[in-house]
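Translate sequence into structure tokens.
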Amino acid sequence: MRRSRQRDAILSVVKSTDCHPTADWVYHEARRRIPGLSLGTVYRNLKVLCELGWVRCYEGPGGVSRFDGAVATHHHFRCDRCGEMQDVDAPVDASLDRQVADRTGLDVRYHVLEFRGLCEGCRLERRRSSGSEVEDQH
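Result follows.
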């Protein structure tokens, strides 16, 4: 693969954050480094970087993709309200890959586990808007 200034800047932006940015966020950050950069160039390069395995892409609600520069297998939490993604510091159970492969005959290379709920900010906002200081219990 041929390196380019644009691709290097886009990769650097994605790897410099743990916020799991959207392509639009990457575009705005990369334009600080390369003012003439186009949104189409960002989308094309993100696709290439994902195909190369240098960045991971996670599809979200409404078709909004989020990108992750941490390509080692790890888990995520996604907020049902704002869509924010966070890395979850919990061990990955590689035996699950083997169990599924053994049961199905599929070539399982890794799995993606996503926890869902409300992030701290949305939880606090919900509490403020409901006028309740008591946390909902499930």
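Note: Residues 39-52 form the longest helix (14 residues).
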